[in-house]
Structures are given as C-alpha cells and as structure tokens.
Amino acid sequence: MPKRKRVAADQGGGSRRKPKTPTTDFIFENSRFSGSSINYRAPCTSSEGRLCDIFRELTIWNEFFCEVGLELRELSPGQISLVQVDGTDVTPQIRRQHEATMLLHRLLMCHRCLFSVVLNSYVLVHHDEMICDELPRSVSLRQLRVSLQDRDMCALRTFAAVLPLLNNLQELDCRLPILERTFCEGLSKLLRSTASLTTLKLRASKTEPEEGMLILHGLERNTTVTTLSVTKCTELFLFQGGVVFADYLSENQTLRTLMVTSDCANYSKVPNLIIRSLFRNTTISEVKLIGFDLNDKNSRLVAEMLSENRSLKTFHMVKSSLYGSGRIPETDGVSGRICPWIIAFDKNRTLERLTMELSCFNLRECKSLFKVIASNKSLKNIAVERVRPTDEAEICRLLLESGVRERFFLARPHVVEDPAVTLTECKELSGVTINTDTPRGLDSLHTALFLLPSCSHVTSLTLDLQQQCLNGDVISLMAQYFTSTTVLRDLQVILSPKTSNTVNRAERALMQALFFNKSIRKLSMTGVDFDETEIQMLVETLQASRTLYELSYHPHDSMSTVLLIQKLSQNVSSNYTLLSIQVDRYIVDWVSRRELFTVNDVVGRNLSLVTRAANFVMGTKNRYCAAAAELVHSNPGLVDKVQALASVDENEASSRIETSMKSFSELDDFMRMAGVVKYSVTCHRRDDGQLQLTDLNRDCWLYVRQHLKIGDIPDAQ
C-alpha cells in the first residue's frame, strides 16, 4: 500500500483549510426511536466549567450510534467518549451505518470535548479512509480503541497508515484477529516518534514472532510508554528466543506497569522470560500475570525474583497456579517449595501488594509463610486466590494467630462445604458460594441459611440451587435472610433446572423478600422462571430501591426478559440509582429496540451523573458537577467510585461525600456554586421594608434549600 503523505493539517500548524465535508450535502433521516432530527452542525461550545451543548442532545446522537453498537458516554466530566455497547446484536442498515459514521467524522472534526473513541468494524469498514483521514486532525482525541474482525484487513491497513500521525494520542488499545505486518510497521513508527503515548494495549488471537519483532524494536526506541498490556499474542515476546524482549524489559527506564494475559496456561516460556527479565529491571513497579499455570521451575523463579527485585510494589498472579507439576518432598518440617517464598518475604521490603494462591501449600507451609509475613511490615495487602477446601478454617485460625489477618483478603467467592465450620470460624471470608449439587447439598443449604443472619462478615453470596432442595422450610429461611440482612451487598441466585411449580414458588418468595431489602447493591439471577407478577415485582423493586444499582438477569424463559424490559422502560427515567443492567443479547430480536434503548439511555445518564458527582467530591468544583452530586449523592455506586478514585475505604468515601454536600449548603456558598453571585449575596434595602433573601435566618434558608437545587437555576449563557 502506498505510504500516506503527511499534509499540513496533520501537523497541526498553519491555518486549517475548510474543504467540503462528507456531511455537507447529506440529508440525515430522523432518528429511529423518537423521530427527532439531529443538529449535527452545531459547533463545540465546551469551555472551562461549561458543558458543550452536545450533552443536551446525547440521547438523539445515541439513537444513531446504537445502530452500529456504539454510544456516547461521559467517562470524564465535560468530555465525551464513544464506547462499545456490550451484549447487543447489531445488524445495521447500510444507510444507518453510513449516518453513524458521518456523525463520528463530525465529532472528530469539530468537537474538542471528544476524549476517546472506539472504532469497530461497522464504522471503519467501507468508511476507513474518511475516518482515518480525520483521526490525526482531532485536537482533543486522547484514547483510541480499534476492534476489528478477520474480514477487515483492508480497513486495518488504512488505519496502520495513519498510526504514525496520531501525535496527541495517550492511550492505544488494539483488539485484532492478527498482528498483521502493515499494522506492526505503523505501530512501530508511532512508538518511535510519539511524545504523548503512555499506554499501549495489544490483544490478538494470532501473531508471528517476526511481526512482533517490529513492535519490539519500536518499544526499544520508545521513551513514553509507561503501561504495556498484552493479551493472547504472547508469541511476540519470543522472537530470537526472547532475547529482544528480555533486553527491552531489563533495560527499559520508562515502563512502570506490565500486564500479560495468557492464551495457553501451560506455556512456560513466556512467564519464564518475563520473570527472568525482572531480575535486572529497576523501574517497573507493577506486574500482573493472568491465566498462567506456573510449573515448579517458574514458581521458584518468582520467589527468587521477589527476593532480589527492589522496584516492584505490586505483583499479581491472577487465575494462575503455582507448582502445577506436583508436590516436592518435605524435609526437616519445611518443604522445598516454601523455602524460596520465606526467603523472599524475609528479604523484600519494597513489595506492598501481592496476589497468589495458597492451595499449593499445606498447613505447616502456610504457617511458616504467615510467620515471616508478620514481620514484613511493607507488605500491606495479600489477595489469596485459592486455599484447600479442607484447610479453610485452619488457615483463618493461623491468620489470626500470626497477626496478619487484616492484611489478607480471600479474593474469590469460596465454595462452602461445611457451613457450620466455615461460616462461624472463617471471618475472613466475605464472599461465599453454597452449591446444593452435592451429596449433602440440602443439609448445607439449610445450615447456611440458618447461620447467615449472624454472619456480618459475609457481604457476597452465591446460591447455586437445585429444584429438589427448594422445600417450604428452605424458601422461608431464604426469604427471612434476604429481608433482614443489612450487610449483604452482592447476591447471585442460580436456579437449575426449571424450578416453577404451583406448591413452592421460590421466585415469588425471592421477589417478596428482595422488595424489602435495603442493603443489596448487585443482584444476579440465572435460570429463574418468573411469571408476569414476579416480573412486575422485580420492576417495582428496581424502582423503589435506593441501593440496588446493578442487575444481571438471565432467566429460564427469554420471554420474561422481554417483559422485564417492556415494563421497566415505562418509568425508568425516574430511576437515578440503576448503573448497569445485563440481559441476554438475543432479546433484541424480541423486544422493541426502542424500549431497550430507553433503559440503556437512563443507565448512561446515571453513569454520567455519578462520574460528575465523584469528581465534585474529589475537588472539581463547578456547577454541573455540584448539580449531579445533589441528584446521586445517596447512590452507593458513588461511594464505590469515590473509593476507587481516592483509594480509601467505604466509610471514608461516605464521609467525603457528606462533607462535599455540606460545602454548598449555606446561602453564599450555594449562590456562588450556582453562578448567581461571585462572592456573596447582598440585597439593596427595600423602601417598603419587605423581607429579603438575606433577612432569612439560617434555619429558614436551610428549609428553602431543601426545595432548591443547583439544577433549578438556569445556566447563564
């Protein structure tokens, strides 16, 4: 393919020519759902403290973008992002596909509030030149994700040609079927020339080491990338036996975070290469290995690396096993497999966070490990992926005895085999699973439901239930617990097989109990067989709840999903709590797409409000963020967001939210935040002596304030 010439507009200098744009003569049809016309010609009006006018029209824009599986979201206050809509089947008409692509072109060309974009096959294929020509000209685009399929190689090559011209890009995320040579060449050029790119994410099902070499050579000469994430395409590490990648990783002075996800758990060369390289690296502070089955050699190597490395603060082995090839004979009471780890935690005083499994160690080995960790004060958080089911109670006792319980976190929901022991003795287990598909399933379920009301440490519960276990006694205990619990945050119910019967309706009891629950934030239901009454109860629960912000619904009968969306869409606009709803993707063949769009649109609105409110709590003091905080300050999703942004616990996040709301409760503070006055409120004395705003005492003003919101005051324009 001929190389694309860089024109003046690509350089960002000089006066910009105003050619005839693709949208100049095109006539857009009205939107599919509301029948509205789109004002795509309106210019960007964003400025400091002021939203672009496009935010008032996001619903209409998204009616066009949903045709290609995309939507506009506000992921950062005042900035718009074009994101992928997961879980929807897309079969766009050619004209609708063309309309969405031209709207994207308009955003790239005119809107400085555009922050990030996802390019999928629907917008890039057949329109690759139009979109790719505009990408380098966008002055505000900072994050770009490209997600293509096997048939899209022509579009990928067009995109590869403009890669070196993306001078303002900070994050690039490529999800491709193959790391094709033309793409690798373009990416290599970008890596060598960029002054802005800090995050590179690569995901591909196939690559050849020779093609990966081009990327590695680009990385070797790069001085900006601080975060590198590689998923599946780990073959790119192996060119020339891994020497090139090992040299890059060992000698690089810029990279701070490395994440590698395996596509073959038993492939030992890649983790071996990474771990050996970390012996010499002095700048990487975070490494995450996902999905690796580490054999004896690599397991020992990790421990030896941690003994010597002095830059790593975080090391995560997620969904990864240690010592996958069998046990090592024990000698003198301490096995050969635990010795390297004891040495590592005794010597390392840099590591702060660690994720690993403990099921590879017996109790004596775990005791030795906990003892040395107790004296290592720098290691503040250890997430444990797995322990031996028979050792759970003893593990928890050892954690308590060695004084390290507060630093250990059992990461995954734990399958409880003996509730009488686990629930009463293992206070470290916050997430538990009760599976009735076992010989003692009914007894375990009954015991668990009897004990759970007294288990304040259990905040996440999964019930995997068989039909034959749902007798009247069990259903009654389940309903009592759901009604009374004040600590349960996450509930997942799996019913199998079909449980509907006329005698014991577990679904009816479940919904009656959930309606009165005040603590559950995330609810997942799979295999349920709801009738219309129970679906209506679920809708009413969603509408009434001020805590339930995430729903996953995958019933036995797809028609109940259809009915759920139909009923929910009628009044969902009044819901300011719901932040996520996951349903089976095939329902778009049954449900009116308008109803599904209505629900998703409200979810998007609520997410934007939580984003603005969280940033207000964190210090972004403008009127539209304050207005959002007034609307969603009690949403538990806001607490989670502030926790993530500030790296604090739930209590501290709640305290910060409360403090931020008080910051504009008084008269002068409120009027300044609303933009009515610059400093304070003053009123000229009236000749008739009538009471004025400043004459109100504090109690009277606070009463008025209960009925007056920032959003009630028109924005001065």
UniProtKB/TrEMBL annotation:
SUPFAM superfamilies in the record: RNI-like (SSF52047)
Protein name: Nlr family card domain protein
Lineage per the UniProt record: Eukaryota, Metazoa, Ecdysozoa, Arthropoda, Chelicerata
Residue ranges of the region described as Disordered: 1-24
Organism: Rhipicephalus sanguineus
PANTHER family: C-TERMINAL OF ROC (COR) DOMAIN-CONTAINING PROTEIN, PROTEIN TORNADO 1
